[in-house]
Amino acid sequence: MVPFLAAKPLSxxxxxxxxxxxxxxxxxxxxxxxxxxxxxxxxxxLNQAVEWKWIKNKLFKIKRFKEDNQRIVYLTDDQCVAxxxxxxxxxxENVHAFVMVGLHTGMRxxxxxxIRREDVDVGKRVIWVPQAKAESREQPITRExxxxxxxxxxxxxxxxxxxxxxxxxxxxHVHTIRKAFRRxxxxxGLDPDQITPHTLRHTAVTHLVQAGVDLPTVQRISGxxxxxxxxxxxxxxxxHIEAAMDRLEGRVSxxxxxxxxxxxPKSTA
Length: 269
What we know:
mainly alpha, globular
């Protein structure tokens, strides 16, 4: 937002400025949902400014895009294997670790890259996430990921603070993995315009739901703010849905013949 709004005092921001920003972001290829999240940030800042009495009130309403309720895109088991293999062969050694963490936890892009070495507890199999979107949390991890991270941390330079270090970064860690991820997706035979770093989160959560994990537990693992956000994943079709319907059919069909016999009128002959 800085190139569009930083030169203006908060009290001088107008609807035109926001609409110009929205148009520019969409022209740059940002999804409606992405722009809406950014507009939500701006709205929060303005509300906070009112609360702190920096401005008297919000003089305009921020109109957000109507988002398309598209089907959630996630990877199959075979696609997960293909992406991991492709990432392992990329010249950016961070991308394979990123994909591993994403598929085994469902953590967000920024959360993964900001993991500190000290926040990984391989014994308890958790990662402490101090600045999560909803609130700070302990992120459970799989046994396989715990073993993988233990090996990765052993190979990091002594005194290295971050799991994804970047000496040239102001913070000391990597901030984006998109280019390397895109190369890996292409190498795995996937559409890089459809399969993005966020797809790993969709994949992990969807696989948990398909495995029959109850939604409150999925929410606990994924760190979603509300249960309704997790419920979207329960609507995905797949073999687990077919298996559930087969079980329903089995229960109904099992009593079907007996019910027919009980309900069939007796002969008067």
